[in-house]
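Pilot study result, target chain (380 residues):
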Amino acid sequence: MNEPETPGLAELTERLVSDLGAAFQQRSVYAPGHPQVKEALARVPTAFAAWCAHAGTAEVSLILLEGQLLVDRQAVPENAPWARGLLRAFRRHGIRGMTLVAGLDEGELGLFLDTCQGGKGPTPSRHLLAGQAGFAAADAPEIAGAKGKPPRSATTSISPDQVEGARAELRAVASGAVTRIDRLRTLIAELARSAEAGSLDSAQLAAAQVDDREFLHGLAVALATLRLARALRVERKALEDLALAGLLHDVGYLEPAGAGEAPAQTRILHPIRGAARLAALEGIPDVAVLVAYEHHLRFDGAPNYPSMTVRRKPIAASRIVAVADTWETLRGHGESQPAQALAILGSRAGSFLDPALVELFGELVLPARPTSPPAVNDPG
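Predicted structure:
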């Protein structure tokens, strides 16, 4: 008697995609609690667990890129009939990407599908991250909405669970426990989308309860970087990569210091450690590695750290993050008044920092007030 063949990754991918598409379809037709919905929801965690067990991972990302579905960055055949349901669902709900994380159950999936049918649209949760998945909204005209419906608002909502997932992943990066940064990229994609829409308040509110100083500093630098980059007309993929560089610039500080290592030595080594750690990640943009290495190099090329045999100025991205980093460091060290922090920032212009960027950032923080016209005497 022949033993049943063990499903391969291709078969498991087909099962996961088709079951997920069916869950979307059934929930769009029936109310929560309907037997058809319950049956469809129950199949997804089983298919997901089988896929993860075969792939040796705890999560999987499904991304819509230029109309084609990628599963764990592998393209699904364009004419695959089993992928059509999920493709339709992604387009209908304006989803560019989704990451399923170990621990997802049918209850959490059901609540997510409920939000897709509601007015707010897809809402991420602890084990299900949905949104741009590393791609800017402006790159995706195909997500404009279902036929006959206007596109959703460009503003986004960053959830506390999404922030906590990114925080945990950042710590895992520093310890070498992960090789990919799907949660961090998803968070940054949402922030970039918010920046292009002119609103970043949701990220600050979602991070309000996070008790992790290093992560909060990185997030604040990413937000300040986005603010400055948008003023420079940086857009789309370049905007996301630059914001990601801002978030990760100090990852070298998160690695444990060597035995007997003085704080000053840790400070000097953290750019080298951070760049080396980021360079080992899968899919990390080169600019993030360079910024981690260069963000303490001086604008005027004078010696600083890390030490270099040949002096040079940092690249433009590093100069942008350096301004954002200095600003947030000043604010974190008690310079609560913007005018005072800007004065100190200005004192470093031309030496440590790019003077043009400092001037622009100052205009963003404290816009010049229009002067009142001179009084005119009444001739009468």
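One observation from the pilot: Residues 9-131 form one domain. A full batch analysis is planned for the follow-on phase.
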